[in-house]
Amino acid sequence: MSNHKVVILGGQGAIGSLLGRLFTQSGCTVYRVDQRTQGEHSFCYQLDILNPAADSEAIFTEAKAVVFALPEAVAIQALPWVLSVIGDDVQIVSTCSVQTPFHSALRAAAPGQPFIGVNPMFSPSLSEQKRPVAVILDNCHVNEHWIERILTQAGMRISRMTPEEHDRVMAFCQALPHAAILIFGLVLAKSPLDIGTLVTVAPPPMRTMLALLSRVLLNPMEVYWDVQYENPMAAEPRQELLHAIQQLDSIVQAGDQTEFSNNLRHIAQQLGEQLNISAADCQHIFSTLE
């Protein structure tokens, strides 16, 4: 793979930087394209991908792969021009949080263009060792892709999915927990209580929720917007979350401890073996809080 040239659109962003480092470590020559250029990388190009200069196509000459490490809407808008300046054998790589819209746009414009999606299931600020990554393919039963090999060599755990499967899973793995965290934040922001007072007496669950909320607030807003807005499958778990809050409120208002207990038992049964595994995770997290 040492002869592969990889062009990363959005190469200065968090995901673009992560993949750029992994491709470089594998021996690829990485060209980073972004609206802003910074750092000490050898091949960095400043380019507005939605309004490219006349000679910009030279960046893609002899590219083996083009990575779209861009917000979903920008990636889809940029796709037609990129396809017009590359060969039909160049690998398209999507890092979109929601894969189906980009994949559909690609297949409508270039049915035979090689495609793979890569969605790391962790913040790039964390080590990639033993972290999960979703790999999106047209056909999940094909042999190992060369990009999968790079991810595996970096110590990541791969889960293969089709674009539709990916977006359904992400509706519950990303959109649902993010929505719950944001609802917590919205309620907290309206509280008349002083946040300092709350933190002083906050037990581990409250501190953990504050930590999750703070991480969301300090990361790029566009990431969380795309997870909610760009994925039409996210509407269902959001509505179920609202329904569950109303259901809990009704049970408590009615003083129905039996129904409350029945619901907890049902949830525990649904978790199955994961119950004890996640309880151990929680104990580990709580033990790190001082």
From TrEMBL:
<dbReference type="GO" id="GO:0070403">
    <property type="term" value="F:NAD+ binding"/>
</dbReference>
<dbReference type="GO" id="GO:0004665">
    <property type="term" value="F:prephenate dehydrogenase (NADP+) activity"/>
</dbReference>
<protein>
    <submittedName>
        <fullName>Prephenate dehydrogenase</fullName>
        <ecNumber>1.3.1.12</ecNumber>
    </submittedName>
</protein>
<dbReference type="InterPro" id="IPR003099">
    <property type="entry name" value="Prephen_DH"/>
</dbReference>
<dbReference type="InterPro" id="IPR036291">
    <property type="entry name" value="NAD(P)-bd_dom_sf"/>
</dbReference>
<keyword id="KW-0560">Oxidoreductase</keyword>
<dbReference type="InterPro" id="IPR050812">
    <property type="entry name" value="Preph/Arog_dehydrog"/>
</dbReference>
<dbReference type="InterPro" id="IPR046825">
    <property type="entry name" value="PDH_C"/>
</dbReference>
<dbReference type="GO" id="GO:0008977">
    <property type="term" value="F:prephenate dehydrogenase (NAD+) activity"/>
</dbReference>
<dbReference type="Pfam" id="PF20463">
    <property type="entry name" value="PDH_C"/>
</dbReference>
<dbReference type="InterPro" id="IPR008927">
    <property type="entry name" value="6-PGluconate_DH-like_C_sf"/>
</dbReference>
<dbReference type="GO" id="GO:0006571">
    <property type="term" value="P:tyrosine biosynthetic process"/>
</dbReference>
<feature type="domain" description="Prephenate/arogenate dehydrogenase">
    <location>
        <begin position="4"/>
        <end position="282"/>
    </location>
</feature>
